[in-house]
Amino acid sequence: MSTTSSPATPSARPARSKPGRVAGLLIAGIVVASIANAVITLVARAAGASADFQPLQPGAYVTFTVLGILLGAAGWAVIRRRSTNPRALLSWLVPPVLVVSFVPDLMMFVSDYTPNANTAGIVGLLVMHVAVAAAAVATYLRALPLGDTSGS
Hints:
It is a single chain. By secondary structure, the protein is mainly α. It starts with 18 loop residues before the first helix and ends in a 9-residue tail after the last helix. It has helices spanning 19-46, 58-82, 86-107, 119-143.
C-alpha cells in the first residue's frame, strides 16, 4: 500500500495561509485593481463617456472592486478548502462568473435607467470587470495558493 498522496486526495490540499499575509495581499490586489479602473475610466472618458456617469466615479468603482475581490476571495477559499481539484474547478468556474458579471452592464445598452450611460462608459465598465478579475485571480493565487498539481 502506497503512502504517497495524489493531488486529488484531501492531504494534497494547501496548508492554511497566514491571515495577515492574506489580508495584505488582498489589499494590494484591491489597490492594483482600483488603479487599473482609474486608468480605464480616463480612457473611457477620452472615448466619450460622460463625466456624470455614476459607475465611473471612484466611489462607485472602488466600492464594487473591494466587494468583488473580497467576495471572490471567500468563494476561492471555500473551493480551495473543499474541492479535491480546486484548480480545475476554478479554471472552469471563473470565466462564466466573469461573463455573468457583465449582465448588469450589458442591460444598460437596452435600458435608459442609468443616467448618462453611453457606449464608451458601458464598454469601460465591461473592461473594468476583466481588469478586476485578472487582478483578483493573480492575488488569490498568491494569497490563497492552490495546492494541487494537476494541470501544471
